[in-house]
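To fix ideas, we quote verbatim one protein's residues and fold tokens.
>
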Amino acid sequence: MTLSVRNPATGAVIAEVEPDTPAIIADKLARARAARPAWAALPLEARLSTIARFRDRIVEQKEALARTLTRDMGKPITQARNELAATPGRLDFFLENTRAVLQD
């Protein structure tokens, strides 16, 4: 069985996907849980650097991401762009304040 992913604004099918089975979901959850200690063991600077690179990728890919949000969610392109424009600032807040919060 496949699931049709539709653009809610047009009803057009934009993808066909296979749903995950309970076993696949359990495996994904187990792998995520297994990865958590390695992430937690990384020095704070390494974790912050990873988040900063994620932020940079959002900035680099903002137009493609906006088009994806519009296609997948039926969201007006201006709204999608505005959401993406605000995201780096939110990440910057955490990048700038995490050290101080963790010192308390």
About this structure: The first helix runs from residue 22 to 41. The longest strand covers residues 13-17. Residues 42-104 form one domain. The two ends are 52 Å apart (CA to CA).
